[in-house]
Write a structure and sequence with these properties.
Chain B: GO terms for molecular function: iron ion binding; iron-sulfur cluster binding. The complex is a heterodimer of chains A (420) and B (155). Chain A is 41% helix and 17% strand. Chain A is globular and about 75 Å long. Chain A contains 16 helices and 17 strands. Chain A folds into 2 domains: 155 residues, Aspartate Aminotransferase, domain 1 (Alpha-Beta Complex); 256 residues, Aspartate Aminotransferase, domain 2, CATH 3.40.640. With 420 residues, chain A is α/β, with parallel strands linked by helices. The longest helix of chain B is centred in the middle third of the chain and has 16 residues. Chain B has a single domain, classed as Sufe protein. Chain: A (Alpha-Beta Complex), CATH 3.90.1010. The radius of gyration of chain B is 14 Å and the shape is globular. In chain B, helix 4 runs antiparallel to helix 6. Chain B has a 3-stranded antiparallel beta sheet with strand order 1-2-3. Classes of the chains: A alpha/beta (420), B alpha+beta (155). Chains A and B meet through helix 14 of A and helix 1 and helix 3 of B.
């Protein structure tokens, strides 16, 4: 696609006007203007468009109440709006219906829910769970907790030098002992998009359910849980331009139905007595206590926002940024990009020879450029590529080529600074 | 803005960061402690050779950013020859310097040493980097007290 056509289809300057925070500068001092913010850390958390902020404010000002409880007008109104978002999320993932959608506190909690509820019920000593080398800690540690408790075995699918998942190794790891596969749909460090459909098909041949961590994947492309045939799929609202404190678990209803509650409390029970308590059907069974109601409204607005821009148009814009930034960064001597899988998401992790990422982060920050430095909650992966910590620039729907240039410019300054 | 950067990354810091002094594991070390920053993965071992209550040798190994490496390197030069009590006093002086706008320096730290420590004080303008500057110092202090590691949430 040529730039001209791309620009016509997607007016990034207009998009940026929807994000109030992008107009600010950073490091302003008395008498000295700051530097315009160049926000390249959307992979950690995305900024929020005015549409999301306003939807949450409007809800709080006009319709707020607790849900699922009151007979009064506001409770009905709030419940209707809350449940409408559940339906919207189902459509967003192309889930068969909204009973498959459970609201959680985060992706992390959604994975913990599956590990705790499904894992403790259906996994036993010696059973194997397959993860990949490129998992976020959120998709490693819950399984390790289960490992400690149930003596399960964790197997890890490696990746190649480009960061492509080794599907042959995956096939070899699948066995009669495999009871669950839990793999990211898009690596938060490498950007690698994993072949979810093939992963699920191979697991299903052995009757093994698959969980995908879609925290990055839902942001950068269209996800169809039925096409993938995912058994569980999790994502988080705050990376999708929505609020913090809210995650989503999609589960096939037959699986959710046979899973016990994860937490106990109000809103998840049919009846409570001290002789015994009966639980509601999913998704309510997994939503103990008052949920983040206002945040759910915010997620609804975030989904409306990305769908109005067009998920394909966003993906095309981000792909252009990825290609451009990769090309520009590659011209810097001593810069090594970690993660070069074909079809990857707009996430670029790199190391700069002779300069520690922490020092890179501090210096580019003085130029207004916000990047993530460290091991990005994926320590095993850092070991795999033997790079230790890295710098990560992650692009979102509001970023521009000029911002990629600003990153490159600030990295040149880093090199001058350190004589690297 | 760039003045702050120059203040943080002074020539002497860049030099120590690139060419750390006492970057080794002494054979006769009788104390050691690990300092680790889980956020960025910086990890140092600090080795002390204590003889009759005096730091006869001090060295370190590991990997970290320019700030943490330079700070560790400069620490080894400043602590050697000090008594354990003096070394601990230096640790407190340095910690004050990195965290307080008006540092409360303990009595008995000489001016020349303070001057050398002052080089690191630019880190005050960069709160997230204070942990980098104090990492090896915490490890040194832990080693003085016979502990195996500095607690990771100290700074």
């Amino acid at each position: 696609m040529s730039d001209a056509i791309l620009n016509q289809a997607y007016d990034v300057q207009r998009v940026r006007e929807d994000f109030p925070i992008l107009a600010r500068s950073v490091h302003a001092r008395k008498g000295k203007p700051g530097k315009p913010l160049v926000y390249l850390d959307s992979g950690a958390s995305a900024q929020k468009p005015r549409q999301v902020i306003q939807a949450m404010t409007r809800f709080l000002e006009e319709d707020y109440s607790n849900i699922h409880r009151g007979v009064h007008f506001l409770s009905q109104t709030a419940t209707d709006q809350f449940e409408a978002v559940r339906t919207k999320v189902a459509r967003f993932l192309n889930a068969p219906n909204d009973r498959c959608i459970v609201f959680t506190r985060s992706s992390t909690e959604a994975i913990n829910l599956v590990a705790s509820s499904y894992g403790r019920t259906f996994l036993n000593e010696g059973d194997e769970v397959i993860l990949s080398i490129m998992e976020h800690h959120a998709n490693i540690v819950p399984w390790q907790l289960l490992q400690a408790e149930k003596k399960i075995v964790i197997k890890v699918v490696p990746c190649d030098e480009d960061g492509v998942l080794d599907m042959d190794a995956y096939k070899d790891l699948l066995s009669d002992r495999t009871k669950l596969v839990a793999i990211t749909h898009c690596s938060n460090v490498l950007g690698t998009v994993t072949p979810a459909k093939a992963i699920a098909r191979l697991a299903h041949e052995r009757g093994v359910p698959v969980l995908f961590d879609g925290s990055q994947a839902v942001v950068h492309g269209t996800v169809d849980v039925q096409d993938i045939d995912a058994d569980f799929y999790v994502f988080t609202a705050h990376k999708l331009y929505g609020p913090t404190g809210l995650g989503v678990l999609y589960g096939k209803y037959d699986l959710l139905k046979k899973m016990p509650p994860y937490q106990g409390g109000g809103d998840m029970i049919e009846s409570v007595s001290f002789e015994g308590t009966t639980f509601k059907a999913p998704p309510s069974r997994f939503e103990a206590g008052t949920p983040p109601i206002t945040e759910v409204i915010g997620l609804g607005a975030a989904i409306d926002y990305v769908e109005a821009l067009g998920r394909d148009a966003i993906a095309a814009h981000e792909h252009d940024l990825l290609q451009y930034a990769t090309q520009q960064l590659s011209q810097i001597d001593g810069l090594r990009i970690v993660g070069t899988a074909p079809g990857k998401g707009p996430i670029i992790s790199f190391a700069l020879e002779g300069v520690h990422p922490h020092d890179v982060g501090t210096i580019v920050d003085q130029y207004g450029v916000a990047v993530r430095v460290g091991r990005h909650c994926a320590e095993p992966l850092a070991e795999r590529f033997d790079v230790g910590p890295t710098v990560r620039a992650s692009f979102g729907l509001y970023n521009t080529r000029e911002e990629a240039d600003a990153l490159v410019h600030s990295l040149q300054a880093v090199k001058e600074f350190f004589g690297a | 803005m760039m003045d702050d950067l120059r203040e943080l990354y002074q020539e002497v810091i860049l030099d120590h960061g690139k060419n750390p002094r006492n970057f080794r594991h002494p054979d006769d070390a009788n104390r050691e402690a690990k300092g680790e920053n889980p956020m960025c993965g910086d990890r140092f071992m600090v080795y002390l050779t204590l003889k009759d209550g005096v730091v006869d040798d001090v060295a370190f190994q590991g990997r970290g950013c320019a700030i943490s490496t330079a700070s560790a390197s400069m620490m080894t030069e400043l602590v050697r020859g000090k008594t354990a009590a003096e070394a601990e006093k230096l640790f407190h002086a340095f910690h004050e310097l990195c965290t307080q706008d008006e540092p409360d320096i303990p009595e008995g730290v000489d001016d020349e040493t303070m001057e050398k420590l002052m080089v690191m004080s630019g880190v005050r303008q960069f709160p997230v980097r204070v942990k980098c500057a104090t990492l090896a110092w915490h490890a040194m202090n832990a080693a003085l007290h016979g502990e195996a590691a500095a607690s990771s949430d100290q700074y």
